[in-house]
Fold this protein.
Amino acid sequence: MSQTVVPAPVFVRSGPEAAPPPNRIQAAGQALRASFAGSPGRLRLIALGAVLSVVISALLGGWALQMRSSALSRADASSEHLLLLQNVQTKLVEADAAATNSFLGDGLEPQDQRLAYIRALKEASRDLALASRHSEADARSLGQANALLTRYAGYISSARANNRQGDAVGASYLQSASALLRGETRGDEEIKGIDTLLNERAVASVTARDDAFSQSENARWLLLLAGVIGVGGLVYAQLLITRHSHRYVNIPAAASTIGLAAVLVGATVVMSSAQSEASDVRFGPLERAIELSNSRVAAFDAKAQESLTLIDRGSASPSDEVWNNSYTDAVGSLDGLDYPDAKASLEQYGEAHKKVNELDLGGQWDTAVDQAISSGDGSGNAFFDRYDDQTRADLEQQKEVALDRLGTANDPLLPVALLLLVVGALCAAGAWWGVSLRLDEYR
C-alpha cells in the first residue's frame, strides 16, 4: 500500500513588513533610560549631580586661586617697573642738578659734582634700558627717551667744554639740554622731553598695577561661588538620599562634604592672607617709596631750576613760579610720610634759595651765584645734601621691602590650588561611593 507524503503548508505573513532588530544606538538609549528609571535611577542621578557639583567647585576654586596669583604677579611686575621708571627720573634730575650747578662756576667744575653727574647719568641709562624691556609700548617710548638722553649728554659736554673756555655759548647748549629733558613748546607744537615720555609710561604702569590689584580682589567672588556649588550640591544630594533611603547619615558623602568644606575654608584663608599682605605693601612701603621718589624728583628739579635761572641772567622773578612749583611738590610728597628731619632740611634749603633769588632780583648776581654754589655749613647746598642723604637710603630700603613682600605674597596660592583639585577628585569619588552603598540595597 503506497503512502502519499503531503508537504507542510506554507503560511505567508500578511500585513506590514516585520521591523528590523533595534540598532546599537537605540539599544544603548533604552539601557540608559532603564538605568535611570525608578528609585535606583533617581539615586544614580543624585550621584551624578553630586559628582558634577564637586568637580565644578574644585575647578572654580583652583581658577580663583590662580587668578589671584596671576594678578598679584602682574601687580608686582607693574610696581617694580614703576619704581624703575621713577629711579630713572630721579637720576636724570640728579645729573641735571649737578651739571647746572657746576656750570655756575667759571672754568673747571668741582670734581665731586662731575663724578655725581657721571654716576647719575650712567645709572639712568642702565635703568632706562631695563625698563624698555617691560613691554612693546615701553620699548617704543623709552627707546625714544634713550635717544634724547644721548643728545642730552652731548649738549652737556658741549656746554661744559665752552664753559671751561669762558665762551657764553655754553649757556645755549645747557638750555638745549634742559629742553630735551623737560620738553619745550615751538609755536603751537608741544615737543615731548625725556621726562614727559617717562611720565607717560609711569602712568601706564600705575593703571596696570591698579587693574591687577582690582582683579585680585575680584577672585574672592569666584571662590565663594565654588563653595556654594560644591558644598551646597553635596548637602542637597544627601537630603535627597535621605528621602529615598530613610537613612539620615551617609558616611562617605558626609566625609566628602566636610573635606571639601575644609579645603575651601583653607583656600579662603590663604587667599585672604595673600590679599591682605599685598594691600599692606601697596599702602605701606610701596606708597612710601613712590612718594619719596616723587619728592626727590621734584626737589632735584627745583635745584636745577635754581641754577638755570641764574645762568639765564635777568630771568629771575618775584613769584619764582617754576622753582616754587617743583619745591612745593617736593615738600608736599613728604607731608603724609614720617620724615620730619628730611622735611626740615628741605625747608631750610628753601629758605636759602629765597635769599639767592632776592639777591638776584636786587642786582647782586655774583653774590647770588656764590651762595648758590657754596657747600659750606649753613649753605643751601649743605641743607640739600642733608635732605638727599636722609631720603636716599630709606627709599632704597622701602623699595626692597615692597618688592620682596609683593613677590612672596602669592607663593602659597598655586600649591593650594593644586591641593584643592586633588581633594575635589577624592570628594567626588566619595560622593559616588556614598550613593553606591544605597544602590546596593536594591540588588
About this structure: The radius of gyration is 38 Å. The mean pLDDT is 85.
